[in-house]
Design goal:
Elements (H helix, E strand, L loop, with lengths): L2 E2 L2 E2 L7 E4 L2 E2 L22 E8 L13 E7 L6 E7 L3 E9 L6 E11 L8 E14 L2 E15 L6 H6 L15 E15 L4 E17 L19 E22 L4 E22 L2 E2 L6 E23 L2 E18 L7 E19 L2 E12 L3 H4 L15 E14 L3 E12 L3 E3 L9 E3 L3 E15 L2 E14 L16 E13 L2 E12 L2 E2 L7 E2 L3
Parallel strand pairs: 3-6
Antiparallel strand pairs: 1-2, 3-4, 5-6, 7-8, 8-9, 9-10, 10-11, 11-12, 12-13, 13-14, 14-15, 15-16, 15-17, 17-18, 18-19, 19-20, 20-21, 21-22, 22-25, 23-24, 25-26, 26-27, 27-28, 29-30
Length: 539
């Protein structure tokens, strides 16, 4: 999950996520439209992470609902080798090669992980190959990157908490029906990225990739289900398979030499071509049942996304700055439904999303800000082409829009102390959430229009040059506007409040560098049903 301002979505689909400017959100995937998967990206590969809360940047389009995240990978590092070992059969190792040759900088990293896990059948294996080479060209740097990731895992199902508490079932055991549960994911990406030497100038990105996914699961079947198909208690395994090919671009130009250098203007374009197929249904003995009559989904979706944007910052006075932007996006989707052929069709949608804000700094220690912005997500293939008898292709369906407003203050005090707080409100149309139907717990459904109102408080203290402390508190109230049943007005799985604390210290002992990091988080009560009859009481 990615949690930003009251969005705690299944697979992080309510945030626009990028790695080196390449969008990570997968359209029309098997688990969730816009789902984010960056589990191949190990922390060792990350240089920095940029986070924009709220849909207030025109540089980002589809899925920019709760905000945008751009992860920048390293371009260089020291040559090294690492071996690790831990409890429950946890072994990992890696190697990095980095050296500069007359301006040309290779960065090659290999990573291997093999983990048995605490519970039975909790095996996980991952092999990563990350290869980047950077070299100067014109007034900037061109980086070419190819990475591949191969992941395999086995599943162990959900145990009955009452059986575990009573001792009838060992807490480390797997459910009987999970013998065929497994998943695999192969992921390949090629990226060419050019950035200028300074903060302004031309930057461009081109990329292409492929994603292959298989998933077999009995987690939501009876925990006493027999793995023997001849047994009366046997329940078949559900499965999802997906293949996706994609390619795209981003190009933008920033200039500050405008209006006596009081205006910073960025203009650009981005887009993506995506061709993917998702098949879901039942499996027997862990094998895919390819009989169309027994498939719940067999869709091919071809999507074209293209956008143009402009964003500016205008310094009207030494204490007052206006920010704003405008973005136009087009999304064309063709769905071929092989189970419900009559629901196939072509769909075109477009949207214009404005952004505007202001920053007032009466003195250096105080900063006041406010923003308004629109965001959107494209219509999912399962919304356009429903997988049920009697439905028709929804060719009149537009993008699902969102509007958000925030206001806040930042105080920069002596002794390295920084305090900040803000309030926000967000209204969303056609929000996608996990189903509350126990018989179809993996389904993602449209819950209609929603409201979020909340606040954030944070404190950061650079206590020493080598010691940094942080703490934050977020509170949010949510509401469904289109209530299907009286009292059922809560957005499921969104916590009432969240607190985080962290500390980071670095130092040295002789020739050795030392780092100590601590992070803790508490997630508050989360409704698991729309009427609030069932809550997760937090942890």
């Amino acid at each position: 999950d990615i949690s930003i301002r009251g969005f705690s979505s299944f697979h992080g689909a309510d945030a626009a996520v990028f790695i080196d400017g390449v969008p990570v959100n997968s359209p029309n995937g098997p688990n969730r439209h816009g789902a984010v998967d960056f589990n191949w990206l190990t922390p060792d590969l990350i240089e920095r992470i940029e986070v924009i809360k709220g849909p207030f940047s025109a540089l980002y389009g589809n899925y920019n609902l709760s905000g945008a995240i751009n992860i920048i990978t390293k371009s260089k590092d020291k040559t090294s080798a690492t071996l690790r070992a831990g409890s429950y059969g946890n072994y990992s190792g890696g190697a990095v090669y980095g050296r500069e040759y007359e301006g040309v900088t290779p960065f090659i990293a290999f990573d291997y992980l093999d983990r048995d896990g605490y519970r039975d059948r909790a095996n996980y294996k991952r092999v990563n190959s990350f290869n980047k080479i950077s070299f100067p060209i014109a007034d900037g740097t061109l980086a070419l990157r190819f990475n591949a990731s191969f992941r395999d895992s086995t599943g162990n199902g959900f145990l009955s908490v009452d059986d575990v508490k009573s001792g009838a079932v060992d807490r480390r055991s797997a459910t009987a029906g999970s013998i065929f549960d497994r998943s695999s994911n192969d992921y390949y990406t090629f990226v060419a990225n050019y950035v200028p030497n300074g903060l302004t100038g031309l930057s461009a990105t081109a990329y292409a990739g492929r994603d292959e996914f298989k998933f077999f699961d009995t987690a939501f079947n009876s925990p006493t289900a027999s793995p023997d198909p001849t047994d009366p208690s046997y329940e078949p395994t559900s499965f999802s398979t997906a293949e996706r090919n994609y390619a795209g671009w981003r190009v933008q130009h920033s200039s500050s030499n405008l209006w006596k250098e009081r205006l910073l203007l960025t203009v650009g374009s981005d887009g993506q071509f995506d061709d993917g197929t998702v098949i879901a249904g039942t499996a027997v003995n862990g094998q895919v049942d390819d009989v169309v009559a027994n498939q719940s989904r067999n869709q091919r979706a071809e999507t074209i996304q293209a956008g143009v944007f402009a964003q500016s910052q205008i310094l009207l006075h030494s204490t007052f700055k206006l920010v704003g932007g405008l973005r136009w996006d087009y999304i064309g989707t063709r769905v071929i439904n092989n189970v419900f052929a009559d629901n196939s069709g072509q769909h075109d949608q477009s949207t214009l999303t404005p952004k505007i804000g202001a920053v007032f700094t009466p003195i250096r220690a105080i900063e006041l800000f406010t923003n308004y912005g629109g965001g959107f997500r494209s219509a999912a293939a399962t919304e356009l082409s429903p997988n049920r008898t009697g439905a028709t292709f929804n060719d009149s369906l537009g993008v699902a829009k969102l509007e958000s407003v925030d206001a806040g203050v930042v105080l920069r005090l002596p002794l390295g102390l920084k305090l900040s707080g803000d309030v926000f409100t967000t209204q969303t149309k056609r929000e996608l959430r996990r189903s509350t139907d126990p018989a179809n717990a993996l389904a993602v459904v449209n819950v209609g229009s929603t409201d979020r109102e909340g606040y954030e408080l944070s404190i950061e203290w650079q206590a020493l040059e080598s010691l940094r402390l942080q703490a934050s508190h977020v509170g949010v109230e949510t509401q469904l506007k289109n209530v299907a049943t009286p009292g059922g007005d809560r957005i499921i799985t969104v916590p009432d409040d969240t607190q985080t604390v962290s500390a980071s210290w670095f130092g040295a002992a002789g020739a050795y560098k030392l780092n100590v990091d601590f992070f803790g988080q508490r997630v508050g009560r989360r409704p698991l049903t729309a009427d609030g009859s069932v809550y997760d009481d937090g942890y």
